[in-house]
Amino acid sequence: MNGKDLLAVANENYFAVPAFNISDYAMGKGIFEISEKLRAPLMIAIHPDEVAHLGRDALPAIVQRAHRSSVPVAIHWDHGGSYEQVLEAIQYGFTSAMIDASMLAFEDNVAITKRVADTAHTVGVSVEGELGTIGKLDEQAEDGVAVSEITYTDPQQAVEYVERTGIDSLAVAIGTAHGLYPKHMKPELKLDLLQQIKELLPIPLVLHGGSGNPDDEIGQAVKLGVNKINISSDIKVAYHDRMREVLADTTLREPLVIQPPAIAAMQEVAAQKIHLFDAAGKADLY
Ligand SMILES: [Zn+2]
Fold first, then answer.
1. N or C: which end of the chain has fewer CB atoms below 10 A?
2. What is the pTM of this model?
3. pLDDT higher than 80, residue 184
């Protein structure tokens, strides 16, 4: 499915579709399987750096897996950095693409986002834009600015941005950050700001940097109209923490022995998120 149709059902029914970032096929397969088990609609998110790591030849396999899935799936190009990158996403069969020009001046963000949306829409691919900036907590985090420099999304400007660009969903900056929070830092979402934005702009809103935020805040954000939440760090931490434990046995050699426990640990966290976002069972609404 494209992102627009996938998220429209979430918007009508007050749940959020998890967008899980995957960096290899085995992780992706694990995410498909847990989503199918819980009957949850799914976005497979792949960041350009992850595309490079996977290799472009692996992308058709992921698209093929989506076609065979028993739940609705969109394949989403996460944080597209240019018009040309989004063309690439379209060529590879992605059904949803983000153009992230949030670091540019407002008029420049509008111009590039509109150009992307006009092109993507001609072939039925939906587009997510971003207004305001999302934080970056550590060097491995995918994108963003220092947390002290976060610009929150301005509700009035968001309305103008969506009207002028024609995007299908909007990533909002309400206090989340990519990566993992250091122990001394307590994340806090501006839920009142989220509410203001949604009242003026009833399209699906997107939360990036959703790892590490308290569950009750995320749950409230879903009820207030967030319809897609990106989860990357949390599933990857679960995967690799478990893998480090497994690898303590230095005699192990075969990936098919080493990876399954790590995938199971990742699925456990993915399942928690699916329930937190109220997405379990929602595949039946499509
Ligand atoms: Zn992001």
1. C
2. 0.95
3. no
